[in-house]
Amino acid sequence: MLVHGFPFHSGMWSEQIGPLRKIGRVILVDLLGFGASAMNGATPATLTMDQQADAVAAALDHLKVREPATYVGFSMGGYVGWSFVRRHRARLDSLVMCNTRALADTPEAAQARRDMANTVEGKGHKLVIDALLPRLVSPRTLEQRPDVCARVVDLIEEAQLAAIAGAQRGMAERPDSTQLACELDLPVLAIVGEHDAISKREELEALTGRMRDATLAVIPDAGHMTVFENPTATNRALGEFINELR
Ligand code: MLT
Q1: Which is the most buried residue in 31, 125, 151, 153, by most CB within 10 A?
Q2: Rounded to whole angstroms, how far apart are CA atoms 237 and 198?
Q3: Which residues contact 164 (CB under 8 A, 6 or more apart)?
């Protein structure tokens, strides 16, 4: 199951779906508030990682998926993944943590999220694009790959502002998952972009070095948006990990 990042929807996996379908069944999740799970006027002020993890489990129930699955979480989808481990561990046979973190936010980072949440509905998507785009892609992508930047911007513009606010408040209150990650008894692949400004390579190297059964794939020529910036290397890492499990 592929669980998208913030503030995207399952369409962010467009480069992965074809290759992964050759390996097995692919389940695409739209987290609460996003994509086909948009909640319009009913979006809660805070969309917690636990609520999202329970929604992913409910989607598996709905699809009658009983056997343990590989959870692939991108960034916020990875934060939801740690909640999924806490609450639905029996449904997992392995985990792929793409461009994500186990650490909680610093107080300053959490406050910046709350500030965006409190102003985004008045200011619109431009606030989000200006704040996020330079951090989502590598400096080279930002300068030389307008096609990739346009895809990221399009995804951001498709998000409802209330969902952006709710998810920011939810991410601001997520707990630290470092201990959970280090105690985890599941095969884990961590993926990080060589130039990722959000989930940094050194942070992931330190984390995976402490985990029981984790491999780190560093994706060259990519920032945070590995899935778009270097889909070939990202898909290779995903495919090798999943094939080895089967
Ligand atoms: C994401 O890609 O989901 C976000 O960058 C996560 C975050 O804001 O920490």
Answers
A1: 31
A2: 20
A3: 6, 7, 116, 117, 120, 128
Closest by alpha carbon to 100, among 128, 79, 71?
A: 79
Q: Which two tokens stand for residue 202?
A: 């050194």
- Which pLDDT belongs to residue 75? 98
Q: What is the pLDDT of residue 158?
A: 98
The answer, yes or no, to whether any atom of ligand 1 lies below 6 A from the CB of 76, is yes
Helices (H) and strands (E) in the chain, counts: 12, 6
Confidence of residue 246 (pLDDT cuts 50, 70, 90): confident
Distant-in-sequence, close-in-space partners of 3: CB < 8 Å, separation ≥ 6: 29, 31, 56, 71, 72, 73, 74, 77, 78, 80, 81
Pocket perturbation via mutation, ligand 1, pick of 171, 191, 196, 204 by most ligand atoms within 8 A of CB = 171
| Binding site membership of 198 for ligand 1 (Cβ less than 6 Å) | yes
pLDDT at position 129 over 90: yes
| Mean pLDDT for the stretch of residues 140-161 | 98
List CB contacts of 137: < 8 A, sequence separation 6 or more. 145, 148, 149, 152, 223, 224, 225, 229
What domains appear along the chain, each with residue ranges and CATH number? 2-245 (3.40.50.1820)
